[in-house]
């Protein structure tokens, strides 16, 4: 069975729900309290049309400082 890997970065302002949506997708839980994220990473394996798909998900802090650090790498990605 073939396997494909994708790297996903969740970006956005602080307090908008990035971590809640990520936890809902990866762990099937909903986070109701706000605890500011510094940086969390997750891995989820899915079966899509008989193929293993591996998602590496980076949940980022909603700070301008983080965005400035990541922006040069984003310009190089596809």
UniProtKB/TrEMBL annotation:
InterPro entries according to UniProt: P-loop_NTPase (IPR027417), Small_GTP-bd (IPR005225), Small_GTPase (IPR001806), Small_GTPase_Ras-type (IPR020849)
Family annotation (SUPFAM superfamilies): P-loop containing nucleoside triphosphate hydrolases
Keyword Nucleotide-binding tagged: yes
Protein keywords: GTP-binding, Nucleotide-binding
NCBIfam families: small_GTP
GO biological process per UniProt: signal transduction
Gene giving rise to this polypeptide: RSR1_1
Gene Ontology MF term list: GTP binding; GTPase activity
Highest taxon in the source lineage: Eukaryota
Keyword Nucleotide-binding: yes
Entry GO terms, CC: membrane
Name of protein: Ras- protein rsr1
Organism the protein comes from: Neocucurbitaria cava
PROSITE patterns registered for this protein in UniProt: RAB (PS51419), RAS (PS51421)
Phylogenetic classification of the source organism: Eukaryota, Fungi, Dikarya, Ascomycota, Pezizomycotina
């Amino acid at each position: 069975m073939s396997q494909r890997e994708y790297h996903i970065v969740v970006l956005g302002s602080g307090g908008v729900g990035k971590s809640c949506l990520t936890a809902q997708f990866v762990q099937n839980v909903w986070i109701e309290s706000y605890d500011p994220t510094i940086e969390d990473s997750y891995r989820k394996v899915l079966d899509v049309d008989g193929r293993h798909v591996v998602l590496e998900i980076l949940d980022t802090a909603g700070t301008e400082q983080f965005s400035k650090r990541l922006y040069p790498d984003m310009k190089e990605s596809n």
